[in-house]
Amino acid sequence: MMKNQQDNEKLGLTRRQVLTGAGALVGASLMHQSQAQNASLASSASSTTVFTNTTIVTNNSNRQTRLNTALAVGDGLIAAIGPTAEVLAQFPEAEIYDGSRKALLPGLVNCHAHLDASLARGFNEDFGFPNSLQLPISPGSLISDEEATLMSVVAALEGLRCGTTTMVQNTGGIARDASALAATGQRWVFAESVRDIETVDGPMSPPRLANSVPPTFSDQLRNEGMQRIADLHSQWHDADNGRISVFPAAALTELSSPQLLRDVRDFAD
Q1: 132/196 Cα distance (integer angstroms)
Q2: Which of the pair, 216 or 120, is modelled with greater confidence?
Q3: ∠ at Cα 121 (116, 124), nearest 5°?
Q4: In this predicted structure, what is the pLDDT of residue 6?
Q5: Nearest-5° Cα angle at 155, 173 to 36
Q6: Dihedral through CA 50, CA 51, CA 53, CA 58, nearest 10?
Q7: First-last CA distance in the chain
Q8: pLDDT tier at 33 (50, 70, 90 boundaries)?
Q9: 203 pLDDT exceeds 90?
Q10: Which residues pair with 189 in a beta bridge?
Q11: Where are the strands (E) in the chain, listed by range?
Q12: pLDDT at 137
């Protein structure tokens, strides 16, 4: 590690440049893999795949589990579920995956994510959220927009590794990361978050409540936030055959004026 650091110093590279370069290489590699997988899926879109002799955990109201069952997928949809022999008889030309000692489960949903906060995960886990450490400089202020997008993609990929196939990204300024997140192939709800309060800059906490003052709200902040929602909605809502949707979100009740809450509700309706 010391030798690598000395080599970097000889080349005039800062730690940030090294990390950014490594992130770009990882991102390019992942994008290449994703494009190759998408091309492969597209070429076989009309074929059928059968998972045989497997356990299926359904997503119906009873959360039924079906044992030693086959599931056929064709054109991106479930084509049949039943005894392995019967399903194979329906699709004799299907590609077969042996599901013995394995299970198929519905994808998990992360219903409230702040993906670029993966950068701050360590000290948020130690000091809670809102963070009680009160760092004079936040980690997020030390990185570029491109690096912040990389942090969001890292969090999305970690979600995929854990089986999370749907993410609700609930934050402000999603447009910066939207293209990179869409490229992961997950189902997305971009919940663009708006606040219009001027007197505080974060969630209410007991110390803040004890020292609070009557709130004041900004028409400009409200209008700018609602415009961000409208712009994101027009560009991304129902994109990629409905895989991506956009929803308006008030950041927190205590950070929102009654007018902002009405505007968000009207947009949702």
Answers
A1: 24
A2: 216
A3: 115
A4: 53
A5: 100
A6: -110
A7: 56
A8: low
A9: no
A10: 168, 245
A11: 48-57, 65-74, 77-82, 95-98, 103-104, 108-113, 164-171, 187-194, 244-250
A12: 85
- 3-class secondary structure per residue, 197-208: ECCCCCCCCHHH
pLDDT classification of 32: cutoffs 50, 70, 90 = low
Alpha-carbon distance 236 to 246, whole Å? 7
What are the C-alpha distances in Å from 190 to residues 62, 144, 181? 29, 21, 10
In eight-state DSSP terms, residue 191 is E
Cβ atoms 131, 139 nearer than 8 A: no
Amino acid at 183: A
pTM over 0.90: no
DSSP conformation letters of 59-113: -STT--EEEEEEEEEETTEEEEEE-HHHHHHH-TT-EEEE-TT-EE-PPEEEEEE
Give 62 or 193, the one with higher predicted confidence. 193
The answer to whether 233 and 246 have CB atoms below 8 angstroms apart is yes
Residue 204: predicted pLDDT: 80
Count of residues making up the chain: 269
- Cα 186 to Cα 107, 110, 160, 238, 247: the distances in Å are 10, 11, 8, 14, 17
Lookup result for tokens 């190759």: 36
pLDDT in tens, 223-233: 999 999 999 99
pLDDT at 13: 55
